[in-house]
Amino acid sequence: MYSIEQLIEQKALNLGFEKCGIISTDRMKGYNEKFKERLDKVKESEPFYEGQKRLLKFQSDYPWAKSIIVITIPYSKYNVPEELEGHIGKSYLYDIRIDENSDENKNRNEFERFMESLGLKIAANHKFGIVGMRWAALEAGLGVIRRNNFFYSESGSWVHLEAWITDREMELCHVTDIKPCPSGCNRCVNACPTKSLTEGYTMNPLKCISFLTTFGGRNLHTEPLAEQFGECIYGCDICQDVCPMNHKKWKGGKSFNGLAELASSLTAEGIMNMKEDFYRNRIQPKFFYLTAEELWKWQVNVLNFMNNQYKEGYRELIIKACNSEYEKVREMAEYICRKRRLTIDNGVDMD
């Protein structure tokens, strides 16, 4: 006779999830302490974390919550299109939050139906998390949190986390044998181009390339850190890519739902020439952080990339963008033209 915890874990594994753990809600108290510690270390980040404070009071929002079910979902099994490597963050390429056609999304829905069939009352927030998921996964023994702040399982940091609260007292914890960060290793901190990481286990999210190229950075032409973005267009994997504990963790071999077909459209040239309808119907449904009205943000990011990685082949696209229908795109393109003394309008010098 299997316990309810074992039934839940077995169902998760059968659906292809990597690991499943269950903890008491009481074990989230340490998260509150770490949250306060993060704010104390980087006080200027408080506006960013304001919305995250809801994670500290989930029990007042859900007074019936007694335990938390958390799973790890690896995405390192997927192929990374060559033209997107190093330009778009991998977690965004395989984001399952709004991609209803992904296998992971379908399996997650089936997992929820199974838990409800066991008589459990559950709640989740698939877009932003209902609890501090990295802490919950750590407490459940599913892996470790490393100096770059990412959660690592046996698949390295290339995992999504999902969590549900439930009304039943349960516990299913594991003991991980994943090694901690090597003594003295500081590769992630040293590699961070914008110094968002200034020491292990902390960061200033307002300086993070992933933040500034997604839901932040609305004025990149005046952003002093923009020139440090290197080859990044949307998101950043640098602190994960340099991590020795991620060495050989990316397996590849499988194609992610529809990604290969879209890869050429997500290059710098493809984004700058992208039509609004194509963006709304094909691109935006796969990328969580930007809305159907924010093709301009993608194009501003690309212009910044072209400025940082400038070559003569980009001149025409930059000059063309000076006549964009989007104000922010025009501002960015005109800034680059002034900086690089490019000419527009039949030879008129932007200087």
β-strand number: 8
How many domains? The number is 2
Number of helices: 16
Separation of the first and last Cα atoms = 78 Å
CA-atom Rg in angstroms: 22 Å
* Helix/strand order, N-terminal first: HEHHHEHHEHEEEHHHHHHHHHEE
Strand content: 5-15%
Please tell me what the overall shape is.
globular
Task: Characterize the main sheet.
Answer: 4 strands, antiparallel
Question: What's this, in brief?
Answer:
By secondary structure, this protein is of the alpha+beta class. It folds into two domains: 163 residues, no CATH class; 85 residues, no CATH class. Helices cover 35% and strands 9% of the residues.
Description:
The chain is α+β, with helices and mostly antiparallel strands and 351 residues long. The chain folds into two domains: 4-166, no CATH class; 267-351, no CATH class. The chain has 16 helices and eight strands. It has helices spanning 4-14, 29-41, 46-49, 58-61, 90-93, 103-117, 133-139, 187-191, 209-212, 238-241, 259-262, 268-272, 276-283, 295-308, 315-321, 327-340; strands at 19-24, 67-74, 122-123, 144-145, 151-152, 159-166, 343-344, 348-349. The strands form three sheets. The chain has a four-stranded antiparallel beta sheet, sandwiched between helices. Strand 7 (343-344) and strand 8 (348-349) form a beta hairpin. Helix 14 runs parallel beside helix 16 and helix 15 (315-321) packs across helix 16. The protein is globular.
Helix-strand blueprint:
Blueprint: H1 4-14, E1 19-24, H2 29-41, H3 46-49, H4 58-61, E2 67-74, H5 90-93, H6 103-117, E3 122-123, H7 133-139, E4 144-145, E5 151-152, E6 159-166, H8 187-191, H9 209-212, H10 238-241, H11 259-262, H12 268-272, H13 276-283, H14 295-308, H15 315-321, H16 327-340, E7 343-344, E8 348-349
Antiparallel strand pairs: 1-2, 2-6, 3-6, 4-5, 7-8
Helix pairs in contact: 14-16, 15-16
